[in-house]
Design a protein that fits this description.
The structure holds 2 protein chains of 2 kinds. By secondary structure, chain A is α/β, with parallel strands linked by helices. In chain A, 36% of the residues lie in helices and 24% in strands. The chains are: A alpha/beta, B mainly alpha. The structure holds adenosine-5'-diphosphate and magnesium ion.
């Protein structure tokens, strides 16, 4: 469960202003908002990367900015994150990238176990014969899949996807959407998709959070969102072809 | 006033950063492979340019000294002056400046583009401390490898001046060798190496700092790189003064 209480973070000309949100356990939640609305910034505060000026970020009832670094690390081990630009390490090949979170934490793990784990995650993300390739040798869609495989390698409790389909061609985007949906229905973990384009996700999302200019406009179930009388919300619903 | 404030803030931040890096040295053993990897990287990047620059530095030095000391000192002392200056001063400082130009810029460009593309945040979220994983191995590698690079630099400078002495200055091979042994003390070699160690430590740690704290956006990479080269070059000169006073003046 991810809970935000009055989270405020001010930069010179942008930021988050009193964000409240409750994203329930094991649900599928779509966070929408225009670009520049503060979605990625919100993600960073949830991940413990940017400390808010005020307010609290609760992960399973623990305030992540009020714990020791060690505890924060253990909370983070519940996270699997697809960053907006994948954030794969370009000095490493696919195998090294995907295995890094595991191999760094237990250096003693056997090569065989590691290979099995990576092979498993590459299989669920429909990647084959890429282990030895470097990130810049892969297409955009494949890079996304590798980044998702890396996010999955630690069997996270909460999966975050920041703009998973932005910049992809429609067909590739469709593939990534299917992958995200299948992963959610298979492993039933909390899934939080951040996007400025909710079209692909509206059918199977449980919760919607709408932010604009650093403020929460809406946070609740999809059904309530459909009835939410707000001009920006209506625009999103309309764009998704649901009116 | 604003400059003063941001200077103080940055200095404080860098100090904290250095302390964090020093603390992470207890993970050096776990990361030994990375350290070895970066030792190779650093040598590969810098060795050719160091040798090349040093040969010319040596040739110029021999000429300069012979010219300035003409009719004052016997030519035997050309190599004495070159060798002493190289061990105490020129060798370490050429290596240090070479590091700030080549190694520093490489490191800060690499780390800042990692920062800009969220790779560093990703490491943080995967509970891989970027200081422990990215910074410490580079700093450790620099400190371990720079004495060797300095020795190579020193040898190249002396060799350059040897070549020019024989070829153009009427100094025989024997004279050169005899001269370079005068006033020689082992302590001079070690003193120079200690200075170079400091240069390696500070140039690399500063470039890591500027790389890792880069802001977002493509411009940030350029900014981090420029800052890191400038600041580490200045640091080399300032540290040189401090350590020369501490080690060699009596
Ligand atoms: N570290 C930061 N420093 C200064 N401004 C920031 C920082 N992070 C985000 N911002 C600003 O916050 C706003 C929201 O950015 P972001 O969260 O990336 O938007 P998006 O909703 O498109 O993901 C932007 O105007 C951005 O410039
Ligand atoms: Mg964003």
């Amino acid at each position: 469960m991810v809970k935000l209480e009055n989270v405020t973070k001010r930069f010179n000309d942008a930021g988050l202003y009193g964000i409240d949100a409750h994203l329930p356990k094991n649900g599928f939640c779509t966070v929408i908002g225009r670009s520049g609305a503060g979605k990625s910034l919100l993600l960073r505060t949830i991940l413990g990367l940017i400390k808010p000026d005020s307010g609290r970020v609760l992960i399973d009832d623990t305030d992540i900015y009020n714990v020791k670094y060690k505890k924060l690390k253990s909370i983070r081990s519940k996270f699997g994150v697809l960053f907006q630009n994948n954030a794969l390490l370009d000095s490493m090949n696919v195998f090294e990238n995907v295995s890094l979170p595991v191999s760094y934490r237990n250096p003693d793990i056997s090569q065989n176990d590691l290979k099995d784990m990576v092979a498993d995650k590459l299989r669920v993300t429909y990647l084959s014969n890429v282990s030895e390739k470097y990130v810049n040798q892969l297409s955009g869609g494949m890079q996304k899949r590798v980044a998702i495989a890396r996010a999955l390698i630690t069997d996270p409790e909460i999966l975050f996807y920041d703009e998973p389909i932005t910049g992809l061609d429609p067909l590739t985007a469709e593939g990534i959407i299917d992958l995200i949906r299948n992963l959610h229905s298979e492993i039933k973990k909390t899934t939080i998709v951040i996007t400025h384009d909710m079209r692909g996700f509206i059918d199977f999302t449980d919760y919607v959070m709408l932010i604009d200019e650093g403020r929460t406009l809406f946070c609740g179930t999809k059904e309530d969102f459909m009835d939410f009388d707000n001009i920006i919300a209506r625009a999103y619903v309309k764009m998704a072809g649901k009116i | 006033m604003n400059y003063l404030k941001s200077f103080t803030l940055t200095t404080g931040e860098i100090t904290l950063f250095i302390l964090r890096v020093l603390k992470s040295f207890r993970m050096a053993f776990k990361n030994w492979k990375l350290i070895v990897y970066h030792m190779f990287e650093i040598s590969q990047e810098s060795i050719l340019i160091l040798v090349f620059a040093s040969l010319f530095m040596g040739m110029v030095s021999a000429y300069q000294i012979a010219y300035q000391m003409r009719d004052v000192l016997p030519m035997l002392y050309v190599s004495t002056i070159v060798t002493q200056a190289v061990l105490i001063e020129i060798g370490p400082i050429i290596t240090g400046i070479g590091f700030s130009g080549k190694v520093s810029s490489q490191i800060s460009a690499e780390l800042s583009s990692m920062k800009v593309t969220d790779q560093i945040d990703a490491l943080e979220v995967m509970s891989i401390d970027p200081i422990e994983y990215l910074v410490m191995p580079r700093v450790a590698a620099a400190v371990l490898i720079i004495p060797f690079l300095t020795l190579i630099t020193e040898f190249s400078i002396v060799f350059g001046s040897y070549l020019i002495s024989i070829a153009a200055l009427d100094i025989t091979s024997n004279m050169f060798i005899e001269g370079s042994k005068k006033n020689f003390e082992m302590f001079q070699v070690f003193g120079g190496l200690i200075k170079s160690l400091m240069f390696g430590f500070f140039t690399v740690i500063l470039s890591c700092y500027f790389g890792i704290t880069a802001k977002t956006g493509a411009k940030a990479v350029g900014r981090a790189t420029t800052l890191s080269v400038t600041v580490s070059a200045i640091a080399v000169v300032v540290l040189d003064y401090i350590f020369t006073r501490m080690l060699f003046l009596w």
